[in-house]
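User: Predict META domain-containing protein's structure from this.
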Amino acid sequence: MGPRTACCRDPAEADVRLHHSRRKVGAMRFQTVGSALALLLMLASCGSSNDDPSTSGEDMAELAGTSWTATTLAGEDLDNERITAAFSAKSIAGGSGCNRYWRDYETDGTSISFPGSHALTKMMCDAKSMRQETEYHEALSNAETFDLSEDSLTFYNGSGDTLVAYVRASQELVGTTWNVTSYATDSGTVSPIVDTEMWVAFETETGLAATAGCNHFSGTYMANDGGLIVSELAQTEMACVEPEGIMDQESAMGDVINAFASYTIEGNQITILDQSGQTLLTAERQE
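Assistant:
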């Protein structure tokens, strides 16, 4: 038996097969890298999405520090500015058609609630105002969500029905005159003497005028972002003897004006505070 001869392929054929093999491996590597890249892009895309409803969209504007006037209540258009809402960090206050009210509120995203009972002054008004007042507090108690924009605020119940809608209350002072309804004295808060004129007018961008029933005041004021400072207050010097107590009222009015530090307008009412946040004066807009 002769010697076994090794069988060898054509070198050219071997080179072709080796070339195809290398191309196949290269293609597999390319597919692997491409798939990995696609996966990374997909994961990055998923990671960049935000499914947390509490932080989705633009940052929620704060209610605190805003003031509003109700325009609709329980589907009824309101024809006055008596229902108002002013928000602090944890509470809401305003007029509810007849009386002043205060109550706490809580928010979580677009959810809102008004836990606990509310405080209310005890005036009696006409039947329509009293009905609207009751409906308003029922609306607040039933509110579950809210929608807030630059110029509007709306509360909804759990079914998505509109309970009450507001527009932002203007805080503009220039050109307004306010009839005083109460003011602070050393002995407490009092109302003006019956049948006396007591008002404050912001006549120009810097000029203030006022009266307490006898003399007239004039001065300079600066107002900015709810802050209010009066300077250079002067008054005429008449002496009035009637009605009784008119000069005491005037003296108290001068002290109040000199202590102005901040203000809030809610509908047709203005509240002016001192530096400690105590109410100095409340007044209604003069039409």
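The chain has three helices and 20 strands.
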